[in-house]
Design a protein that fits this description.
single chain, alpha/beta, Spore Coat Polysaccharide Biosynthesis Protein SpsA, Chain A, 4-stranded mixed β-sheet, 3-stranded parallel β-sheet, 14 helices
């Protein structure tokens, strides 16, 4: 249950609708709760401004089961008696690891912070700790609190009852005792959103991938993320744009404008990477991710076929064999990746070929050696990647046999 209380000094009066990475704070809060296992979300709010209604509609389109309750009694009616209820205080955001640790508790529990000046905005529990804005309880506790609520604030009253019930206190900064987490944030105004948005933006950079994703796309695609999310561009539209750019390249190749195609394909790859990075910020899938990737690679394959037809007309049918080895080697390497992962997971070398790696390398090779040497070099690159995966799979199988 997410509390969204009126605040007189914030925009439309709701912290929940503060802008965050192109969306709203409540969408981030709902995403954290869903990732921790929340089956459905109840937003406790007296009024629903247009921005909040739009945010809830977006969450529903993404598959979230979310309801609006205008009063505490209304909220109680929306929970099953056996359900455990996670309360999220107005504007509170904690690290996913801390929320997961709270959700794993069997009884009543809450996230706690040390009573220091850094966390002065959070409500005090006692002389030593403050409440981080997240609590876990059952429906009976919520009902008992509602009966005595009167004019008191729900979150504060629930906190007092949980403390009196000796609720388990979980350290919001390091619940496991092994790795410190980002500190919770209480979004009391737009300035407080900064740390949350910075954390979301860090999600955009993948922690793994080949050299193109880790280096080239970080330089080319990453700078696009800020402007795109600031304009609230849907990541699916960006993914579709990547497909359109790739097929425009195929159209240029059909007109024998291969230099235009060679330049557009890397742009399409960078655009697709931007869509994937946008998806990582908010979770979910850049629908339909597999289909758009397939369509984009099909366009690159069409360019390859058109180029090979030109080279074969000038240099003989052998170029068809060279060209056929390229997608075959890529497909074989991808299949062997699955085999290696099933036998003994081994991190793949960064240098391995991929569709995006080939389209980025192709223009440089064409400049250095022309179209023939470009095609031959790309095929050698793909075949070497296949051989590396084959040897890794073979060695992994031998180790397992031993």
């Amino acid at each position: 249950m997410i509390a969204a209380q009126d605040q007189t000094d914030i925009g439309d009066g709701l912290r929940a609708t503060l802008p965050l990475a192109g969306r709203t704070l409540i969408e981030h809060q709902a995403g954290l709760a869903t990732a921790a296992g929340a089956a459905h979300i109840v937003v406790l709010v007296e009024r629903v401004p247009a921005v909040l209604a739009q945010a809830i509609d977006r969450l529903r389109r993404q598959g979230a089961r979310i309801e609006i309750a205008r009063s505490v009694a209304d909220a109680i009616d929306r929970f099953h008696p056996a359900e455990r209820i996670m309360l999220v205080a107005d504007g509170a955001v904690a690290a996913q690891g801390a929320i997961d640790a709270l959700a794993d508790e069997a009884g009543v529990a809450l996230l706690a912070l040390p009573d220091t000046q850094d966390y002065a905005a959070f409500e005090r529990i006692d002389a030593a700790e403050r409440w981080a804005g997240y609590a876990l309880m059952d429906k009976a506790t919520l009902e008992a609190t509602a009966r005595m609520l009167g004019d008191w604030d729900l979150s504060s009253t629930l906190l007092r009852r949980l403390v009196q019930a000796d609720a388990v206190r979980i350290d919001a900064l390091d619940p496991s005792g092994e790795r410190p987490l980002p500190p919770p944030v209480l979004a009391i105004g737009p300035a407080a959103i900064g740390p949350i948005e910075a954390g979301l933006m860090r999600r955009a950079d993948p922690g793994e991938g080949n050299w193109v994703e880790l280096h080239l796309h970080r330089l080319v695609a990453a700078p696009l993320i800020g402007p795109l999310i600031a304009r609230q561009i849907d990541q699916r539209l960006v993914a579709y744009a990547a497909v359109g750019i790739a097929w425009l390249a195929a159209l240029l190749a059909g007109c024998k404008l291969f230099w235009g195609a060679a330049l557009l394909l890397p742009i399409g790859a960078a655009t697709a990477s931007a869509a994937q990075r946008m998806t990582r910020i908010w979770g979910g899938v850049a629908e339909p991710a597999a289909l758009t990737a397939l369509a984009r690679h099909a366009a690159a394959l069409a360019v390859l076929v058109l180029l090979t037809r030109l080279l074969a007309a000038e240099g003989g049918w052998g170029w068809w064999l060279v060209a056929a080895l390229l997608p075959a080697a890529l497909a074989g390497a991808a299949a062997l990746d699955v085999v290696v992962a099933a036998i003994r997971p081994v991190p793949a070398p960064r240098w391995l070929a991929s569709g995006d790696a080939l389209v980025w390398v192709a223009p440089l090779l064409a400049v250095l050696g022309g179209w023939r040497w470009m095609l031959a070099a790309l095929t050698v690159y793909a075949v070497l990647s296949f051989l590396e995966r084959f040897l890794t799979a073979w060695k992994s199988a031998r180790i397992c046999d031993i």
